[in-house]
């Protein structure tokens, strides 16, 4: 069981008050976030046809929950891991123009997650995607977008303080940018997660860029699917989370692959067989818009702003009984 128990934990809010705070954060954040990035809210699927290639492959080893349907014989239907690919198709299908985008409430099941304070089998996030010009596929575009998202998160800190002053968790005032290679150069003797802890403890909040490719050491900082993020133009928003003295990832995002980056990354992972799938053919044939997008964890944002010790305090999921029992001993109120 992977569980961090903070010393002398005080939830500060009752379960009922926490539910009120969750609703306030979710409703307020999505409105402000959508306005700042020029995004419209869309409905999205909970499951997709496996044959389309639209489901998120994550690190390539996690298996989606799947089922068959009486009226669609011979089809395998998968519950989404995320909507990373679906969103790009939706932007084309619904006729979004340049610099317009969408966001949606994404609910997923990731049955292969290692459950801990931050990871649940149930994933709830704002999945978002925005049309950009090909010439805007740059580090400057990426960093500008990250700063906008950080600004909205900081504004939410003040909003939550006004409503729930006894519970709000203080966030750093700025976000620091560096690449995974720069991080490896700084801490060559540490493992990737240890490097993240060291740099986040130093700066408070970091956008760690260029995740997925092989570093000078011959290792990858972390795995990324080869067919949505461009590994040279992506990253994670990471906070040093004082209540648990560790790193809390709030968002994974990036500029999406163009036809060249997709082919290069598929070759690197020996996954060129995906080129026969409809989604990949659309990218190869330049039929989809160039985009930037990502996901922002709804429950994780609530954890961050309220200083909660476990994601189960801000979402209803399922947990091992020994984890529930241990949390109960320390006033961690699992829903």
TrEMBL record:
Belongs to the class-II aminoacyl-tRNA synthetase family. AsnA subfamily. The keyword rRNA-binding does not apply. InterPro entries: aa-tRNA-synth_II, aa-tRNA-synth_II/BPL/LPL, AsnA. It catalyses: L-aspartate + NH4(+) + ATP = L-asparagine + AMP + diphosphate + H(+). It is found in: Cytoplasm. Keywords: Amino-acid biosynthesis, Asparagine biosynthesis, ATP-binding, Cytoplasm, Ligase, Nucleotide-binding. It comes from the Bacteria. Its main location: cytoplasm. Pathway: Amino-acid biosynthesis; L-asparagine biosynthesis; L-asparagine from L-aspartate (ammonia route): step 1/1. Pfam families: AsnA. GO terms for molecular function: aspartate-ammonia ligase activity. This is Aspartate--ammonia ligase. Residues 23-320 form the Aminoacyl-transfer RNA synthetases class-II family profile domain. Gene3D superfamilies: Bira Bifunctional Protein, Domain 2. Its EC number is 6.3.1.1. It is an enzyme of class 6 (ligase). The lineage of its organism: Bacteria, Bacillati, Bacillota, Bacilli, Lactobacillales. It comes from Agrilactobacillus yilanensis.
């Amino acid at each position: 069981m992977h569980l961090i128990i903070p010393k002398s934990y005080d939830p500060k809010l009752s379960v009922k008050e926490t539910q009120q705070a969750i609703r306030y954060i979710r409703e307020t954040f999505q409105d402000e976030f959508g306005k700042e990035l020029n995004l419209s809210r869309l409905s999205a699927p909970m499951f997709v046809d496996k044959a389309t290639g639209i489901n998120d492959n994550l690190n390539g080893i996690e298996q989606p929950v799947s089922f068959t349907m009486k009226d669609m014989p011979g089809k395998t239907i998968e519950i989404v891991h995320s909507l990373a690919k679906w969103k790009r198709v939706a932007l084309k299908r619904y006729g979004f123009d340049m610099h317009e985008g969408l966001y949606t409430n994404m609910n997923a099941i990731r049955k292969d997650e290692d459950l801990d304070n931050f990871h649940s089998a149930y994933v709830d996030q704002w999945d978002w995607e925005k049309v950009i010009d090909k010439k805007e596929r740059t580090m400057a575009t990426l960093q500008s977008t990250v700063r906008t998202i950080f600004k909205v998160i900081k504004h939410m800190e003040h909003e939550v303080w006004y409503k729930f002053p006894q519970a709000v968790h203080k966030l750093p005032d700025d976000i620091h940018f560096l690449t995974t290679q720069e991080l490896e150069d700084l801490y060559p003797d540490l493992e990737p997660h240890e490097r993240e802890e060291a740099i986040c403890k130093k700066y408070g909040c970091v956008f760690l860029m260029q995740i997925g490719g092989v570093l000078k050491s011959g290792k990858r900082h972390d795995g990324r699917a080869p067919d949505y993020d461009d590994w040279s133009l992506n990253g994670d928003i990471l906070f040093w989370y004082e209540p648990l003295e560790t790193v809390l990832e709030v968002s994974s995002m990036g500029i999406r692959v163009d036809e060249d980056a997709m082919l290069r990354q598929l070759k690197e992972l020996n996954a060129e067989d995906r080129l026969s799938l409809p989604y990949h053919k659309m990218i190869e044939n330049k039929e989809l818009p160039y985009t930037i997008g990502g996901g922002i964890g709804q429950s994780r944002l609530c954890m961050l702003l309220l200083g909660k010790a476990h994601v189960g305090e801000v979402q209803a999921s399922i947990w091992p009984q020994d984890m529930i029992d241990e949390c109960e001993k320390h006033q961690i109120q699992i829903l």
